[in-house]
Specification:
Elements (H helix, E strand, L loop, with lengths): L22 H24 L6 H11 L22 H12 L4 H46 L8 H4 L1 H15 L6 H14 L4 H21 L9 H28 L4 H11 L6 H12 L13 E2 L2 E2 L9 H17 L2 H22 L12 H18 L13 H26 L6 H15 L7 E6 L3 H14 L4 E2 L5 H4 L13 E2 L1 E6 L2 H7 L5 E6 L4 H20 L11 H10 L4 H11 L5 E6 L3 E2 H5 L5
Parallel strand pairs: 3-4, 3-6
Antiparallel strand pairs: 1-2, 5-9, 6-8, 7-8
Helix pairs in contact: 1-4, 1-15, 2-3, 2-17, 3-4, 4-6, 4-14, 4-15, 6-7, 6-8, 6-13, 6-14, 7-9, 8-13, 11-13, 12-13, 12-14, 13-14, 16-17, 20-22, 21-22
Length: 622
Amino acid sequence: MSVTESPTVATATIGERAGWRDPFTWVVAGLLALPLVVSALQAIIAGERAAWDWALLELRIRDVGGDNTPLLGPYSRYGWNHPGPLMFWMLAPLYRALGADSGAMYGASALLNLVALLGVVLVARRLGGRRLLGVVAIAITLFTASAGAILADPWNPFLTLLPFALFVLAAAAVASGDFLITPVLVAAGSFVVQSHIGYAVFIVLIAVWALVAGSVVAWRRWNPGRRLSSAQRWAAIGISAGVLLVAWAVPLAEQVTNQPGNVTEIIDYFSTTTDEPIGLTESLRVAGLELAPVAPWLGGNEPIERTVLVTSTSAWWAMPAVLLLFGALWVSWRRRDVATGALTATAAVAVVAGVVAMSRITGPTYFYLVRPWWVVAMIVWVAIGWVAIRRIPLRNSTVVPPAMAGLALGLVISVLGVGSILNSVEMAAGPGPDPNRTAIETMADSILAGLQPGATYAVMPAGQSRGEALDAVVNLLEGSGYPAFTHPFFDTEFGVWRVFGGPGVPDDFAGTVVVATSESFFDGGRPGGLILLASFDPLTAAERAELESLAAEVKSSLAARGRNDLTGFISALDIADTLAEAGIDRATLGRIVALEEKGIRVAVYLDPRPVTTAGLLAPGGV
């Protein structure tokens, strides 16, 4: 492109009002928001108790504003925390306003996503007028249909989806030279990467691209419609710098004041881990699955086996999307269209970032680690669709009747209306069944009824699958006014102020609440003097008897084969392939796995004897 050539200005279609004054903008926003509003109401009314990671999230949200206000993000199973506390700080006011219980946490998450959704609407409208907004709105409707209740889920891999979509669209706007959107880019990017480090490659690569591209556009004056005055430019810089400082001041302070700081621990992990990353080939297969014409974000199949993504999909399935995207980029260049060029190029950078980020995953490819691809794939098809309709003459045209513009708007609103109703009906049903959540919901009243009001308790696990139940019980007790503390082994998850020996933690406890998930514990291996408070078994009596019979059969067979090293197996879920290699019938293992997948057996006991920290931490004290 020569210096004298002037690309198409990224302005709204002729005759349109400014975005925030356009009724169409707010009609679209309302229709897209309705399912999230319904989801928030469903969560608040249902009020289901939190378990597993969600219980830990509620504990940390509850900490905001107190002596133990979070300085870091959610814990990672690798022994460090995600970079920053923005998600806790932003959810806490809504959580308290909605009732300060687990249902309120889910409702607050839906409302936080509603804010991100409003940002998506306004940025899309500003970047590409009604046409881009219409394409984005239809894509979000389809995305919502596939995502369902996870858009009201506070779990950080889910809570970041719509904010990430806002970030990518804001990056496209900045890449088009619209630097007034830079504060949105900084805020959304900070929220996403603080909440989940897995987004770091996406955020860094896309943000660098957007700032460099936007600077070139501004320097070459390719988008005069977005040129800023000196005062506006300095305001954009100042506000962006302020947002960046506010968002990152606390994590940076934690890094400086602690040895080692959390950032150091994250860097040490990724630079020293001996786990092999999945590599480029497997990452391209994931891209083939997620960019396929009928991709998971559109309701396509995403094969998952026990939370791990299982794909033999060929990378070639991504080629239709990739070829169309680069075709759209070429068309934008030929048309000298800055706006569509910025969006298509940003989508292309996001695809590259996705391949790079996924290739560095270590260990199992858990399904939630590929969720950013849902947003990337959506933006790719949005860019392709927008370029396709960008030049359709709907106004002031001798080719298409003037009434066509109104018909097009009416059609878009009708499609969104039907989609909004269907999505709202789905959201009203709430999240799918979860045996961990059902367990704590079933046991909660009985547990609380067996405790002494106002007493302080130690809470200890007994079993392999401790996380699902221990977290839920600690959260239940604390949320119900019973100070509860657990073993220092869990200091990353709960914080040092909730573990024995931590700052401000008492040394004496009225008793010990034992959360049991160990089969040996149930088979008579528990200490004497314990009082059963509550129990939950996801299996029927007949299913439990069948599972025990099959497990005994497997152990006997292993002993006969001289594989005594495997006779103490806890769960066939974890070692089914190893057991099969040792000669165990796969049909038998398949039935055991099917029963185990229904959930774990949990029982909560009370040891009413007063106990001290020293007693709990002594060998054999548990």
